[in-house]
Specification:
CATH superfamily of the largest domain: Type I PLP-dependent aspartate aminotransferase-like (Major domain)
Radius of gyration: 28 Å
GO molecular function, one term: transaminase activity
CATH architecture of the largest domain: 3-Layer(aba) Sandwich
Family: Belongs to the class-I pyridoxal-phosphate-dependent aminotransferase family. LL-diaminopimelate aminotransferase subfamily.
Oligomer: single chain
Keywords: Aminotransferase, Pyridoxal phosphate, Transferase
InterPro entries: Aminotransferase_I/II_large, DapL/ALD1, PyrdxlP-dep_Trfase, PyrdxlP-dep_Trfase_major, PyrdxlP-dep_Trfase_small
Number of helices: 13
Largest sheet: 7 strands, mixed
Helix content: 25-40%
Cofactor: pyridoxal 5'-phosphate
Distance between the termini: 75 Å
Number of strands: 18
CATH class of the largest domain: Alpha Beta
Strand order of the largest sheet: 7-13-12-11-10-8-9
Structural class: alpha/beta
Strand content: 15-25%
Length: 483
């Protein structure tokens, strides 16, 4: 539009901003960018039209709704940012570690870095599983084998196999199993299901996804200096209390997130501990979200539970999530499941499963049919189950090597027996400092314990997910550094 009509618009506001001046004509919803003038005032002020006209010759005119950011000069919309995103602390833990890894490689481009950090599998997927996926994928190129959308809840054959093989004698029905693209996505969908008005409790330390999703959903306030968010109950799980919270001192919350085997500590809750947890939830009318992503690492010998549903009464108070990622190597394939029993009810008596089904159907078109073919090969046949047991055995032996290494060095070390994670204490040290020193001196990546919550300060998590040769090499480097 011509500039001359602008000067006649009233009222007009002049705002100084860095090297430019914004002339905002309220009547015409127009912002005019002017070169900076000598006036040093930072206050908004009204200017008569004749004064503004002298400045308009070199002005640029843009709509108000895409006014440039005062500092960067970049265009911006009128959409307000979700205020909950501003509550999140720094970046998500594992991308932050990746950034530090990249910086380390720039500093030491020839370094042979060994990652014992993020829990990403390294063993090849067994051929009995990949063959099933390949066969299914090839069939899609034929008229007889092509299939489009499948059920949002997952293929019935896979749901049935999971109910029968993963939950024997626990009363789980195939209709209660919801196939997904991984446990982490199910955490987000469950948080969406619960909404912003619920209160939550988490183990401390614990997987950060539970907390971060709660923050994004608006379930929390801001974090304090220790990293704890207002509105979240942190259940201390330390060596001193056998990695299980003192529930007598834990206030009631609507939802309790609980992971066993625990990420990051590697602790497996005992039958007595899970009975106590279920009883606590039943007394308080709470819902447990039980993360069993590492259940296949629990030794078959002994009496350690793999599922919350091994505890009588859990069906009325618990949802269980799990994943093919860590036992079948599906970190890239992406496949998981959630179990939502029919008996689980809201305060008004309505079924939680019905609402979760609605969330799944609205937000998710179902897991990849090719991935589900692989999942079926994992659990429906003895050949598949034996194959993944052998993969798990590799990582468990790696964990034993790491536990023995730290124990021989006199370190306080936990986990590793029924988990791919080893939890090592460094008294009096900050976790990020230990992480940085180990990376600098040994070129080995770990995970700082404080990234899993305030209760992880002074620890590092060491992952068993790597080849045997590289784990042994990392162990030798750590011995030289820590001896």
């Amino acid at each position: 539009m011509p500039l001359s009509p602008l000067v006649a618009c009233t009222p007009t506001v002049l705002i100084h901003s860095g090297a430019r001046i914004l002339v905002i004509s309220i009547a015409s919803n127009i912002t005019v960018l002017l070169p900076r003038i000598p006036d040093k005032s930072k206050q908004a002020s009204f200017m008569p039209a004749d004064m503004i006209s002298k400045l308009l010759e070199k002005a640029a005119v843009i709509p108000l709704d895409v006014a440039p950011h005062a500092k960067t000069g970049a265009l911006r919309t009128s959409v307000l940012r979700n205020p909950n995103m501003g509550k999140l602390q720094k970046g998500y833990l594992f991308p932050e570690i990746s950034i530090k890894h990249e910086a380390h490689m720039k500093k030491y481009p020839d370094a042979k870095v060994i990652s014992l950090g993020i829990g990403d599998t390294t063993e090849p997927i067994p051929s009995v599983i990949t063959s099933a996926m390949a066969e299914y994928a090839l069939a899609l190129s034929t008229p007889e084998g092509y299939q489009g959308y499948g059920p949002e809840q997952g293929q019935k054959s896979l749901r049935k196999a999971i109910a029968e093989q993963m939950y024997p004698n626990m009363g789980i029905k195939e209709s209660e199993v919801f196939i997904s693209d991984g446990a982490q996505c199910d955490i987000a969908r469950l948080q969406m299901l619960f909404g912003s008005n619920v209160t939550i409790a988490v183990q401390d330390p614990t997987f950060p996804g539970y907390v971060d999703n709660g923050v994004i959903m608006g379930q929390t306030g801001h974090a304090d200096e220790s990293g704890k968010y207002a509105g979240i109950v942190y259940m201390r799980c330390a060596p001193e209390n056998s990695f299980f919270p003192d529930l007598s001192s834990v206030p009631r919350t609507d939802v309790i997130f609980f992971c066993s085997p625990n990420n990051p500590t590697g602790h497996v809750a005992s039958p007595a501990q899970l009975r106590e947890l279920v009883a606590f939830a039943r007394r308080n009318g709470s819902i447990i979200v039980f993360d069993a992503a590492y259940a296949w690492y629990v030794s078959e010998e002994g009496n350690k539970p793999r599922s919350i549903y091994e505890v009588p009464g859990a069906r009325e108070v618990a949802i269980e999530i799990s994943s093919f990622s860590k036992f079948a190597g599906f970190t890239g394939v992406r496949l998981g499941w959630a179990v939502v029993p029919d008996e689980l009810r809201y305060a008004d008596g309505s079924a939680v499963a019905r609402d979760f089904d609605r969330v799944v159907c609205t937000c998710f078109n179902g897991a990849s049919s090719v991935a589900q073919a692989g999942g079926l090969a994992c659990v429906a046949t003895e050949e598949g189950r034996d194959a993944v047991r052998r993969v798990v055995a590799v990582y468990k032996e790696n964990a034993r090597v790491l536990v023995d290494t730290f124990a021989a060095l006199g370190k306080e070390v936990y986990g590793g027996a029924d988990s791919p994670y080893v939890w090592v204490r460094f008294p009096g040290r900050k976790s990020w400092d230990v992480f940085a020193e180990i990376l600098e001196k040994t070129h080995v990546i770990t995970v700082p314990g404080s990234g899993f919550g305030p209760g992880g300060e002074g620890f590092v998590r060491v992952s068993a997910f790597n080849s045997r040769d590289r784990v042994i090499e990392a162990a030798n480097r750590l011995k030289k550094f820590l001896a």
